[in-house]
Amino acid sequence: MRGLACFRRPRCCILSKWKFETSMIGGIMKRFGVLLLAICRTVYCWMFFIGSLSAAYGVSTGVRRMAQTHLVDKGTLGAATIFTFYSIVFGIAWWMVLRGRPTLTRWAIAANLIFIFLYVPVLVRGDWRGVLKNELELWPFILFGIFGIIIFSIPYHGWRYRSAVGAPLTSQ
Fold it and tell me: What φ, ψ does residue 143 adopt, rounded to 5°?
C-alpha cells in the first residue's frame, strides 16, 4: 500500500505541472494573438489616414479642375461629393482608432464597408462595363474591407494590459 501512495504522488505532481505549462502556453498564445490584433488595428488606422488624404486630394483636384475649366459635369460633381464623404468617414475612423475612443468600432466598420462597396456609386450611375472590366482592380479593397470588419469585430482591450489577457498564472 505504501508503494502505491509513493507512486501516485509524483504522477499527480506531473499532471499539475503539465496543467501549469499548458495554461502558460495558452497565455503566451493569447498574448501573441492580442499583440497581432493590435498590429492589425494600427495598420488599418494608417490605411484610414491614407484613404482620407487620398480622397481629400481627389476632391481638391476635381474641384480645382472644375473651377479652372468652368465645366461642371454631373459625374464630376457627384464624384467630388462621394469622395468628400469618403474622406470624412476615413478621417473620423483614423482619429477614433488612433485615440482609442469608445465609438471606434462603429467608425472603423463604416470605413471598411466603404472599402467593400467602393464600386456601388459607379453601378448606380450605370457604368456596368467599366466595373466588370476593372473588377480585378477592386478585389484587394474588398478583401481589406472584409478583414477589417473581422478585426474590428473582435473585442479588444489593449495589448499592454495584463487583465485583458487573463488572470496571472498561479500554481495550485
Answer: -65, -40
H or E, element range at 79: helix 74-99
Residues 6 or more apart whose Cβ sits within 8 Å of residue 10: none
133 phi, psi to nearest 5 deg: -70, -40
**Whole-structure pTM value:** 0.69
Contact of 96 with 103, CB cutoff 8 Å: yes
What's the maximum distance between 2 C-alpha atoms anywhere in the chain? 102
State whether residue 51 is helix, strand or coil.
Answer: helix
Q: Are 104 and 69 in contact (CB under 8 A)?
A: no
Nearest Cα residue to 40 out of 148, 158, 139: 148
Q: Residues of the chain with pLDDT > 90: what percent?
A: 28
Residues in CB range of 38: below 8 A, 6 or more apart: 156, 158, 159
Could you report the per-residue pLDDT of 111-167, keeping only the tens digit for each? 999 988 887 766 666 666 666 666 677 788 889 999 999 999 988 766 554 444 455
Cα angle: 99, vertex 89, 35; to 5 degrees: 40
Q: Given CA atoms 145, 151, 157, 160 in this order, what sign does their dihedral have?
A: negative
Q: Are 61 and 67 in contact (CB under 8 A)?
A: no
Q: What is the mean pLDDT of the chain?
A: 77
